[in-house]
Amino acid sequence: MRKNTTDMVFLIFAVFLLVPLGLLFLIVSAGNVLYGDLSLGLIMALLCLACAGGLYYFFKKFRE
């Protein structure tokens, strides 16, 4: 796959969007679990994993 400037700009914006969102979901998840709201904590943990999976997909796609 040939990478052009548009692809790299998209990757940069995706990284700068997914990393803070993933960290936010992780912090909120830990806070909810610690304060007793286990169901919301698990949902936030799944959202954190979704952000991590998205980052993995983008890095794998653009590394080829």
Descriptive labels:
mainly alpha; 64 residues
Structural class estimated from helices and strands: mainly alpha
Work out the count of structural domains.
1
Cα distance spanning the termini: 7 Å
Please describe the biggest sheet, giving its number of strands, its sense, and whether it closes into a barrel: none
What is the 3D form?
A: elongated
Poorly predicted runs of 5 or more residues: none
N-to-C SSE string, H for helix and E for strand: HH
What is the number of strand segments?
0
Q: Return the average pLDDT rounded to an integer.
A: 87
Strand content of the residues, in percent? Answer: under 5%
Radius of gyration: 15 Å
Into which percent range does the helicity of residues fall?
over 70%
Number of helices: 2
